[in-house]
Each structure stands twice: as C-alpha cells, then as structure tokens.
Amino acid sequence: MRVALVTGSNRGIGFEVCRQLGRLDYEVLLGARDLGKGEEAAEALRGEGLNVTALQLDTTNEEDIARLGELERVDALVNNAAIAPDRAHPDTSAQYVPAELVRLGFEVNTLGPYRVCQQIVPIMRRQGYGRIVNISSGMAQLSEMNGQSPGYRLSKTALNALTRILADELEGMNILVNSVDPGWVKTDMGGQAAPLTPAQGADTIVWAATLPDVGPTGGFFKEKHQIAW
Ligand SMILES: NC(=O)c1ccc[n+]([C@@H]2O[C@H](COP(=O)([O-])OP(=O)(O)OC[C@H]3O[C@@H](n4cnc5c(N)ncnc54)[C@H](OP(=O)(O)O)[C@@H]3O)[C@@H](O)[C@H]2O)c1
Fold first, then answer.
1. How many other CB atoms sit within 10 Å of the CB of residue 34?
2. Is ligand 1 within 6 A of the CB of residue 179?
3. How many Cα atoms occupy the beta-carbon half-sphere of 106 within 13 Å?
C-alpha cells in the first residue's frame, strides 16, 4: 500500500488532499501542528472509510521533524502547510512589511518544506520511488510578479527554487518533484470570495502526487498544465 504524508492538513486544501489520496487507497498521514485538531480531522476521514492517521507535525519544530526520519515508507509527500505572514501588518506593501514577518514566511513556507524533504528524501531514495509536491502559488510567479505581500511571495518563489534544486539532484531516481498552484481556493487563507472549492484546489496536487514513472519533474503546474515560473 502506498503511503502519503500531507503537511498542515487538518483543514483547507490539505484536508481535501488527504481525502482524495485516501480514496485512491493511499494510507494517509495527516500532518497537523496541533495534534488534537489533527486527530479530529483524521477521525472525520476515517468515518468516510479512509485509512488516515494523524501525525504531530509542526514544520518549524525540530523534534517533530526529526521523528519523520523514523517513518518506514513515504511514497508521496505534499508540502502544503503555509502561512500568509504579511496579513499581520496593516500595510502589506514591501515598503512597510517588517523584515521579521518576511523571515517568518521563509521559516514556515520555505524552510518547513526544506526540513521535511531532508527527512523524507532518504526514505524515498531507499524505496526507489517518490513524488514530492510543493504547494506554491500564482503569487510566486516571477513572470507575473506584482506588488504587495512580499513575505508570502518571496517565500513561495524560494519554494519554487527548492523544487528545481531537488528535481535536479534526484533526477534518474524515480523521485519526481514539482510545484503546484492550486488556484484561488475557498479556505481560511483564500477567503470566502474565492471561486474554487478545496476539492477543486486539491485536484492537480493529487495528480502531481500520483504521477506515473514517466511523469514530469522540476515543473510548475496549474490545472495539470505547466505554467511559467
Ligand atoms: N487558498 C488559496 O487560495 C491558495 C492559493 C494559492 C496557494 N495556496 C497554498 O495552498 C496551501 C494550503 O492553503 P489553505 O488555503 O488550505 O490554507 P489554510 O486554510 O490557512 O490552512 C493552512 C494549514 O497549514 C497549517 N500550518 C500553518 N503553519 C504550520 C506549521 N508551522 N506547521 C504545520 N502546519 C502549519 C495550518 O494549521 P493550523 O490549523 O494549526 O493553523 C493549516 O492546517 C498553502 O501552501 C497555501 O499557500 C492557497
């Protein structure tokens, strides 16, 4: 049975990714920084007949990260956990958002996935199989870069660079690494005006997490199509 680890998945898009991978018969490890919330979310999905277990995982916590190395198998890793750090400041322009909030964005949105990958990649190399999906955003695209939200934008652009770096280092090992923009999705982060449901947002993520061996690596995808960096 294939095993998937989804970070920050007690709510929002990550929760839907767990549901959809569960329906594809994956054993799902539902990562949550608050284990109580994780247990509740996992219980809801088990109630739908899915094989889901909550895992204590704050991607900025060294002990939580170190425990990941003890996992026996991880076929698919979805780096989903993220924050929108700029929202803590009344003016989200790069002229005013303090460097401290930008640092916080990097800590969770870039270094979180970086740390998780350092634990999970050795497991995938041992298996000779792995799919890593870094959840990025249209706000990370250099080709489309606009103003505002520097903390979020910089952290996700750097995450895209991590996708390229790992894809190159792992080439030929059957470990495919890609970035996905889920689109604008109705969640706590996306807000109620967003046009997409979490299920629609999860669709391309699940596609990238279950690519065949001949699938792409080192790409940036939206609606299952490659987009510009
Ligand atoms: N929604 C959109 O329109 C949209 C658009 C583009 C990209 N994205 C990306 O899609 C992904 C999911 O977003 P979402 O809209 O589902 O966000 P969300 O509803 O705000 O959920 C974020 C999740 O990340 C978790 N999290 C935050 N910091 C964490 C940490 N240090 N360790 C572990 N978990 C942590 C949260 O846990 P708690 O419940 O404990 O806070 C929550 O489960 C993110 O990477 C986001 O940047 C979203």
1. 12
2. no
3. 9
CA distances from 48 to 18, 30, 44, 53, 224 (A): 12, 15, 7, 13, 27
Q: How far is CA 174 from the centre of its chain?
A: 19
Q: For residue 171, which amino acid is it?
A: E
| 151 in contact with ligand 1, CB cutoff 6 A | no
- pLDDT average, residue stretch 179-190: 98
Q: Using the mean position of ligand 1's atoms as its centre, give its distance from the Cα of residue 83 in Å.
A: 6
**Predicted local distance difference test score (pLDDT) of residue 68:** 98
Q: Is 129 a catalytic residue?
A: no
| Residue owning the nearest CA to atom 46 of ligand 1 | 82
Q: What pLDDT, in 10s, does the model give residues 154-168? A: 999 999 999 999 999
**What does the alpha-carbon distance between residue 5 and residue 68 come to, in Å, rounded to a whole number?**
10
Cα of 69 vs centre of ligand 1, distance in Å, is 23
Whether ligand 1 lies within 6 angstroms of the CB of 82 is answered as yes
In sequence order, what are the residues at sequence separation of 6 or more whose Cβ sits closer than 8 angstroms to the Cβ of residue 30? 6, 9, 10, 14, 15, 18, 38, 41, 42, 45, 52, 53, 54, 55
Kindly report the pTM of this predicted structure: 0.99
The count of other CB atoms within 10 Å of the CB of residue 139 is 18
Atom of ligand 1 nearest to the CA of 10: 43
Judge whether 149 and 86 are in contact, CB under 8 Å.
yes
Q: Which domains does the chain have, with CATH numbers?
A: 3-226 (3.40.50.720)
Query: Counting every residue, how long is the chain?
Result: 229
User: Which residue type occupies 150?
Assistant: P
